[in-house]
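Researcher: We are triaging several targets before committing to wet-lab work. For this one, the compound of interest is pyridoxal-5'-phosphate. I'm pasting the protein sequence and the ligand SMILES. What I need is the predicted three-dimensional arrangement of the protein with the ligand bound, expressed as structure tokens, so it can go straight into our comparison scripts without reformatting.
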Amino acid sequence: MGELLDAGLHQLATTDPRLHEVLVGEQLRQAGTLSLVASCSPVDPSVLASQASAAVNVTAEGYPGRRYHAGCEVIDGIEQLAIDRARRAFGARYANVQPHSATTANYAVLSSLLEPGDTLLGMALDKGGHLTHGSPAAYAGRYFRAVGYGLDDAGLIDYAEVERLAREHRPKVIVCGATAYPRQIDFARFRRIADRVGAYLLADISHTAGLVVAGLHPSPIDHAHLTTTCTHKQLYGPRGGLILAGRDADAPAPRGKGTLAQFVQRTVFPYFQGAPVLNAIAAKARALDIATGPEFRATARRIVADARAMAAALADLGYAVVSGGTDNHIVLIDLSARRMTGLVAELALEECHIVVNKNRVPRDTTPALVTAGLRLGTNSIAARGMGTDAAVACAELIDLVLSAVEPYSDREYHLPAAVRELARQRVARLCAAHPIPGYPIPAPQRELTVAGR
Ligand SMILES: *Cc1c(COP(=O)(O)O)cnc(C)c1O
């Protein structure tokens, strides 16, 4: 494999220097940037290598042992390894590793459990839900009758509202799981509500899958009928998705179509997708092995400890932390009292090589591309081995920049050049002291590391 990859890299550099340059540029950007984006994480080099494998060359419609093409006996081993590892990681009875993304996984499930016009109850997008959970801007919101639940005054999921809406609208499917929610989700409570109205429960744990595997967040596997996740956020894997089932794998599927597990098999292929992306599946197998390995629990503990430390430090510095703290990797900051939009904060921090994302917060009335808040996440810094001291340093860096920002409008502001330079230096030092594991340290940072010691 090494020879093949080396030959490929050599050819890329010599025959397509422009593309090579941007690819190298992106690697360097990541090495020198403080990424606090909650939906990102750096993959292990072995995950990268698996994805760059010759598995990409095979078309293999179908499933291991039952393909529509010859020549799949080796590939079958790769997919079976991914299935076995997914089941082991999540304690699931059933796993489908073919979804191209979590969006695809959700739509495969929703488009088979529901008929067009049927009712779906999910967390509203502006309260922390995902586009695929019924937002009018996306497929599910257009083809189904989507009803959205939200948060109570403390910023926690309003379970009483979920139950009231479920009784009122009688959804066929209830979706739990979120994209910007810093607290634990009570899957058992969601299931009780679903059972009371005869709905299927879909848990989408794209954001917290790593904590679930590590046992640091309750698992939905035996509460939800089906669980979906992406593999590229907290599982540190390739871009892709999984569909899992536990206790209900053998429950009846709708319209007498066998068991739920059999139903999902047909739902992913041939109903919703074509051939699987086997190099991505190889990389999923690799990432899932790492996620059940000895070091992952330590990383997962660091994810939560860092987020708690960052939330506490930001609160001490006078920031409004939504829900007062965090149970997972997410820290949501409400900037409305500081008269600064999320967009201004995001742009100012980006100038200083700190990458975050603007996000709606409870009672937010600003447009989605402006917002009144920021979403921070600790997956990347935890992977870089940054502990709570570094997480507090990140909070102080954010404050250094945001305290110096003078907004002129929703998107325009002034940031003194001296503050920008100081913040960039501190970011560079932090990144140099904590390189992304397995990734080479860029030359300027190597000097910083030496100088810092
Ligand atoms: C990110 C996310 C998705 C979509 O994941 P993709 O694989 O990027 O399509 C779905 N659901 C939730 C809750 C997410 O956070």
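Researcher: Any quick observations?
Model: The longest strand covers residues 119-123.
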